[in-house]
Structure formats: C-alpha cells, structure tokens
Amino acid sequence: MAKQLAKKGLKVVDASAPDDYLRLDVQLCFALYRATNLVTRLYRPMLEPLGITYSQYLAMIALWEDAPQSVGALGKRLNLDSGTLTPLFKRLEKLGLVSRQRDPVDERRVLVDLTDAGRAMRARAAHIPLDVLGQLPLSVDEVVALRGMLERLNTGLSADEDGEDATRRAG
To answer: How far is CA 65 from CA 62, 68, 83, 124, 157, in A?
Structure first.
C-alpha cells in the first residue's frame, strides 16, 4: 500500500508505521476541508453587499442558470437535502429574491423561481468569480487542472453512491 501511495505522489512518512497515516498533514480529507473553508471565506466580503451567504449564492447561481426549478432538482444539483434547502429558500424569499409555489402539475413539488430582484442581482454578482480567481495563489491553468481533478473525484464518488463501479468508469 505504501508503495502505491508513493507512486501517486502521496507523502509516506514511514511505511512500516500505519499510525503515520493518521496525521493531518497526510489526510486528503483535511486538505479538501481546509481549502474549502479558505476559499469560502474569500467570498464573504463580496457577498456581504448583496446580503446573501455563500450557500445562498450557490443556490442563486443554479437559479440564474435555469429557473424555475423544483426544490428536489436544486437539491440534486447543489448536493443538499430538502431539510437544508427549505430554510435557505425561505430566507431568500424573505429577501425578495425568489418565490416558492406548489407545482400546479404535481402538488407534492415546490418550484423555486427568481423574482425581478433576484434576476437583477445577477448583474451585481457578475464580478465575483473573477475576483475570487484573482485572489487564489494559483495560475489559471492550475485552477482549471484542479477543477478537472475535483470533478473526476466528485464523479467517481457520486458513482459509488449511485451503486456504480467507479473503477469501470475511470478506465
């Protein structure tokens, strides 16, 4: 196992001591967790003038791409459950950015749509992706490569959740 990890470029402290794998500096999960927190913090000062949180920003992006959408479809796209999304959309509705209503075709579904104010916010948020990119200590090529690797990771892990064999898809 240690040789396989070393071939992948992972830091191997002592192959004969499994406890060395229980260090934060060798944990992929911790590197991802820390990077996520740091990148999310970059957004805060940019989102503050808009009056929305990072999670609300992601939901708004999904709606700017395609609205209206059902809460279920948005949950799938954002990888969030309805218990998380319902209060998020209630807050966005109170801010006057979205409206929620039952689907007339299927009363069990709730549709979320942008209001005029929600559509107008897109123009005010347009600078954010490039502003964040400019603050990252990576070149554009490195960001593109990192995003590609993360998408492969997400796809592989999602395939595992869906009961598919990720190794079959990776080949």
So the answer is: 5, 10, 23, 15, 25
